[in-house]
Amino acid sequence: MPDKLNNIKNKTPESDLLDIFNSVLECISRVDKQGNYLSVNQQFADACGYQAEEMVGLSWYETVHPNDIEKAKQAYEVMLEKGRVDIELRGIRKNMTTFYKRIVMVEGIEDKTSLLGHYCFMQDITEGKLSEQNESSETILEKHKNNSEKLNNLLSLIPAVSFRADADRENIFEISDNISSLSGYSCQDFYQNIKLNELILEDDFENTIKKIKQAIHNKETYEVSYRIDTKSGEIVSIKEQGIPVVVAGEVKYIDGLISMAELAGKSNHYVKKLTNEFHEKSSDFHFKDVVRKLSEATNAKIAVITECVDFTETSVRTLAFYNRNEYLDSIEYELTGTPCQIVIKGEACFYPEKIQENFPNDSELVELNAESFCGVPLFNNLKEVIGHLYIIDDKPLSDKEKYLSILESFALPVAKELERQLENIVVNELAAALNIIHGERYFNDLAIYIQKILKADYVIIGELNNSDPCEIKTLALCYQGDLIEGICYPLEGSPCQSVLDKRVNSYPEKVLDFYPDNNWLRENQAQSFVGAPLLDSKGKPVGVISVINTSPIKNINTYESLVNIFAIRAADELSRLRYEKVLSSYKNIINSSSDLISTVDLDYKYISVNKSYLKLFDKREEEIIGFPIAKLHGDEKFNN
Description:
Blueprint: H1 4-11, H2 14-24, E1 27-32, E2 37-40, H3 42-48, H4 52-55, H5 69-82, E3 84-92, E4 98-110, E5 115-124, H6 126-131, E6 138-139, E7 161-165, E8 172-175, H7 179-183, H8 187-192, H9 196-199, H10 202-217, E9 222-229, E10 235-247, E11 250-260, H11 269-278, H12 287-298, E12 302-308, E13 315-323, E14 332-334, H13 339-344, E15 349-351, H14 355-358, H15 363-367, E16 372-379, E17 385-393, H16 400-433, H17 442-454, E18 458-464, E19 471-479, E20 482-483, E21 488-490, H18 495-499, E22 505-507, H19 511-514, H20 519-523, E23 528-535, E24 541-549, H21 556-592, E25 598-600, E26 606-609, H22 611-617, H23 629-633, H24 635-639
Antiparallel strand pairs: 1-2, 1-5, 3-4, 4-5, 6-10, 7-8, 7-11, 9-10, 10-11, 12-13, 12-17, 13-14, 15-16, 16-17, 18-19, 18-24, 19-20, 19-21, 22-23, 23-24, 25-26
């Protein structure tokens, strides 16, 4: 039995050899002595995410995870010595995603005098690897206590860059588009040429990498600050937070967030003063102190700081409201018909007098006896508006440049602190969302988390219907925090159809203009859509996750990045469930059979046996599994 493969190789012309192997095995390739692919069958190419012709001439090591290349080289040496080797490695697909593969290399490409190369047989074992972990893939980050009123509206206002990398941060698998505004380099640069570690300044490198490696070794979340050299040559201070994702006791990859850490913009007397007073420790920064000092600096009756409470900039909430030696309670108010509406659109606004005449529908101005108004927006590092700062007085304001200059100076540290607070909330809540335990409610719980974090109207997680592949069957459907009954809907004429054709698809507004015949979108007054595919271990779509709002989405990049992260996790769970279902059916069929059925590995050791097998030989599973066939049947029978 062990000599059958050699007999086929020796007696069969090489031109027919792959045809024979194609009928027996699934993923097959030929590799020359230099390690380049001579040929691959389409199954092999599909597993690696290529077309077969693309792989001819490609180095075999380009499909091996960088951290496993040394292991692969050692396996090659074993094959040269023994003629055959069997090894498990991590592979890299064309789209830079990781998968697990079992490789068998066999000497077999020869001329009359020397070895020219070898055959490589591959099995994708990703699903099996994932199923080894009964619990959810842990994100070791400690859960944050959910007691903040800001959570329901501010995730997308965070300008952080999200990324997914290997444990060494050397290889980037996913990174959000806004990395270009932070570093000057595109996503493609990081996929092909640039490494995160290469950007760190030499003076900061050793200490930064040491902290990260220690945290990864301990399977703990980390937070580091360092400086990078951007593409334009500008030095930028960075804060990075990383979450190790642990599978089967090992760190599988890192999910991280990167944002600017230094105070941007001009620095003047007010900025320096506020920075010294409030930023020595972030916990010492109080918005109430800022509005009091702003009132003193401008001699204005009222000073206010607000934050946006939704993604469409239609309303704000006051963080601090100071009115002549008195702090008023936080309120939320609509912007329509107010001078604040102009500021939230991103423009500084100055009305030296008669403010009530300019905004007759703003009853609050009457109650405050307002005569003048001056306001400036609060921007994050991506120049998105996250709130505003303004003063109101009961007398005219005469010097526009003076008041705008003072407000803009105060706005810089206020925006920075607001951004910091929002980011801390988001990181912890995102970690909680990705730490959902496997179970029957997994998709329901995930949909609720997504709705909560993104403040979305609808969240839909669905899979391709087995009985009709042109239809989506929902695994979870959440509307404004409430789970509703699942539905089936056709892909044709829906934005989900385009999602299955590419990684992420979005319509920040007017989605009905693109799908005018979609009754569901029309009936539910959909305005915007973001969707990402659920991909199986071979990169093929098996479902979709989508977020739908009844209002436009301004910060679409943040939505796309986070929806894609959730899609990766949802796809992992769907693959696990499908694998368990198939495995369960397979086991039931085998165990109910009266025939003797077993599976063995390439070393002819038992992997599994059915009940009839155990009954005939009067053995327990632990007395057979892992042992060679020869031990049970005898060497003579095995060799014959």
